[in-house]
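Q: For a teaching session next week I want to show students how multiple molecules come together into a single three-dimensional assembly. I've collected the sequence lines for a complex. Could you give me the predicted structure tokens for the whole thing so I can convert them for display?
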Amino acid sequence: MLNASPLNSLEPPLGNFDLERPIAIPHQKQEQILRGAMQVFLEIGYAETSMDRVAAVAGVSKQTIYSHFGDKEGLFKALMERVTINRFRPFFCNDEKLNGEPAIVLRQVAETFLTLKSDPEYLSLLRIIISESKRFPEFAKLYTQTVIERGRELLCRYFDAHPELNFTDSEAIAQIFLGSLVSYVLAQEILYGKESIPLESERIVNSLVSLIVSDRSNQN
Amino acid sequence: MLNASPLNSLEPPLGNFDLERPIAIPHQKQEQILRGAMQVFLEIGYAETSMDRVAAVAGVSKQTIYSHFGDKEGLFKALMERVTINRFRPFFCNDEKLNGEPAIVLRQVAETFLTLKSDPEYLSLLRIIISESKRFPEFAKLYTQTVIERGRELLCRYFDAHPELNFTDSEAIAQIFLGSLVSYVLAQEILYGKESIPLESERIVNSLVSLIVSDRSNQN
DNA sequence: GTCTATACCCTGATAGAC
DNA sequence: GTCTATCAGGGTATAGAC
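A: Of course. Below is the structure for the complete assembly, covering every listed component.
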């Protein structure tokens, strides 16, 4: 089994991704294969995806895929590592925005996050990460690290810089803040909530912000 | 294709389940098949599950399954309908608990919900509903209806009966309350957050309750 | 390096005995 | 109703020509 692709050769042990490491630039054929693979895997999931279909969509022969990525699992891993990190890393890296009044900053964070609601690629990616979380736990962990852990850290830092918010456990509050947004997207989009129990983003943002910045000065 | 099983014969159009309709009691063989099917489907997902394996686990021949449920899709649908409704319906049906002081009632609701965190069957069910939400949207909708819609309704009714909470949009608050719990379970258990960024249930419950019951009397 | 052709396995589904 | 035996098709992966 060949394993000399730039994507795999320097790969750290599973579940121990280095988020700061720059993504290796693959050769042109590999890029072409990965683009096709992304389309198919994200559309129909791991088990349903056949290598024939990936080859057809990517416009290469099956053997070419096998020589570059070893087997189906190798292809999927290479794809998911690239796509997870590339999609989510930029999202929580712009620290500079977190300055200003809580009501305004938090509203902006929430609204930025909720743009994902109408991003089909993000929705497919989230679904496949959950779907394959048992077979490929490393990508579930990678997601929690890149999105949840980073987001929580950034929010925590902001909360701690604003003692007037009066939080006794800023980590938990950050988790609640992000979690309510994640599950709102999940329920409305992936679980078709918008078809049976629609609820506008704006209402979530308004109520969430008002809960967070509410005056707690006269409480224990 | 036979379709005379009690589970299917009276089935309403897909995506239009009647939550009040009592579940038909299947014959003994059907029960036996469904138990085996549940084990396999919840463990490894729809696409990976083979009818051979279900037959082996259930202790019947493949043909017996086919004569009862028609095909793989029919088996899965019968299973999911039963298991989704049976697992979730009782959860939000005990209205009587929702009486008393907000801080106490809401804490109890949250704690009850979070018992699901250590319920492997619930976790598998949630994962497969999300995994198959594209192929079988009807069960995603069934889930949103039985869990999210019902839960939101109950909470809304409680909130509206307690104007001192000073909510301008109790529906949105209810969504945030339940959503933060759902996503906490998702992140910690299904996405292995507890291995990399553990956070105790108690902290979530404390902060969530304190956010909700916080004094908003001197705000717009 | 990339292609065509193919080996070999396992799948969902069926036929027919009892 | 339930079983054993079997079919046709499509899956991953490989061999060998160029």
